[in-house]
Amino acid sequence: MSSPAGTECVAGGVRFRLERRAGAGRLLVLHGFAGHPEAWREVVDRLEAPGLVAAPFLPGHGPEPLRPEWTSFEAVIRDLVAAVRALDSGKWRLAGYSLGARLGLGMLVAAPRLWADALLVGVNPGLEEEAERAARRAEDAARARLLRKEGLEAFVEVWERLPLFDSQRALPPATLAAQRSWRLAHDPRRLAWVLETLGPGAMPDLWPLLSGIAKPVRLVVGELDTRFVGIAERAAERLPAGSLTVVPGVGHNVVLEAPEAVARLLEAGTARYRGDRGEEA
User: Pairing mode, if any, of strands 52-56 and 26-30?
Assistant: First the structure.
C-alpha cells in the first residue's frame, strides 16, 4: 500500500508498504496468490482508525530475491513472523485473503502472543489426506511448468478462467484491470516457486491445531464460494473463539468484491480491545 504518508521498508527479506493512520493499533494485511499489497486498499481506506498498517509483498511476489532458506511453508512462516516483530513487537491485528489467509493462519499457530485477533478470508487450513496433497502438488507443478515455459500472460489467461473467480465477471472493468495489472507485474519464475512451496499441497495440515488458537478469529467467505463455505463452517467449529460470516452475493475474493463488508467486519473486531496495546477488553 502507498500514500503520500506511506513508506516502504525491507525486513527479513520481505518488502513492506507501511502507512501510519489515525489510531494506536497495528494491522497486518496479507494479499492472495499473484496479488499485491494494494489489493487491501479499498478495505483499509474504509477503516476509521487502524493505526500502523503494514502490507507486505508476500515471498515470491516482491522485488526482493527469494531467500535460500525458504525451502518450505514453515520456513516462510518463521521469517514472516520475525519480519513483523522487527517492524513492531507489540500486538497486531491480522487480516489475510486466500494464500495470505493460509500464511496468516500459520503465523497465528507459530506466534500466538503476537496477535490480538485475525480475520481470514477464503482460508483453507490444509488438505487432510496425503492423496489430496499429492494431487494438489501435481496440479500446482503443472501450473508452475506453464509459468516457466509459456510465461506470465499465458498463465494469467488460464488462471482467470478458473470457476473460483466466475463471480468477478460482474465487477467494474477498472477493478478487473487493476487486478490483472498486479498479476502481470510478477516474475513467472517466482510465482512458480510460490505454487510449489506455499501451495495447499505443500503446506502442513493445520486442522489439528485450530483447537489451540485462543485468539478471536473471524472467518469470512463469499456465499457463492460454496466449497469454501463448507471449509469455513468446519473450521469455525474447531476454533475456540472462532466465528463465521458468509457475505451474500459474492465469491471467493471477498476483499475485491465486497470491501465495505470486510471493512465493517474489521471495525466490529476493534470493540474487543482497548488502548494501544491491543489487549482484550
Answer: parallel
